[in-house]
């Protein structure tokens, strides 16, 4: 892998844990990691797997290795086979322990319907119990099943108030948050004023058709401006790290 921006002093393999380190000053930082084809598709045949490659997986694993919580939408859980919890990786074990983090990130599934398989390994075999972020008026029997399966964070009624949920996670010391999509959840997080950073893997292929883009939701009016922070390249993939200049974000910094 090569780092093009910021330009390094020497052409050495970048240390992804350093390149993607969460900012030390923030006690709440939400980054999204998404993959897109060169023509903007976030899905290939309904999934993201066809867009991915070894280089992309390397970044995916590094971002998971740094996070406290992985936020994921229920449709992605249902369609992408998110049946497994995040696994501890030797490579990140020491840094996680030093940072006071458990061996693996916690997965937090966002769902109002709670149409989720609470018997899947994602719930039953997680090293750190999986969190369900939902609403108080979710179907009562499903809510009971969610409580039995792990931690439940109730964030209002109707649709989950994601700013509230993210703030509660940060207050509980789990502020390094990685949103892995899908496009509807990412739109909701951004509209909630909680998206700080977008990590995008641009996959070297054209998909065509009518696939979703990495964000699918209401217009941002005005558009959210981004500042390019990092650019890496490997195997024809481009890996960008953009910071969101979001006046509504209300950054939580150490005080
Ligand atoms: N390219 C990539 O990097 C990437 C990444 C992830 C996924 N994907 C692809 O994207 C597609 C799925 O994405 P998607 O956008 O359709 O779905 P999604 O964002 O994964 O999930 C949407 C679901 O999440 C729950 N949800 C989201 N916001 C909520 C809120 N504020 N309150 C309560 N529940 C909320 C709802 O679940 P309930 O219906 O249970 O209430 C909603 O139906 C798949 O094709 C997947 O392969 C691509």
UniProtKB/TrEMBL annotation:
Keywords: NADP, Oxidoreductase. One of its GO terms (biological process) is riboflavin biosynthetic process. SUPFAM superfamilies: Dihydrofolate reductase-like (SSF53597). GO terms for molecular function: 5-amino-6-(5-phosphoribosylamino)uracil reductase activity. Pathway: Cofactor biosynthesis; riboflavin biosynthesis. Residues 28-221 form the Bacterial bifunctional deaminase-reductase C-terminal domain. It comes from the Bacteria. This is Pyrimidine reductase family protein. It comes from Actinocrinis puniceicyclus. Gene3D superfamilies: Dihydrofolate Reductase, subunit A. It holds the Pfam family RibD_C. The keyword Thylakoid does not apply.
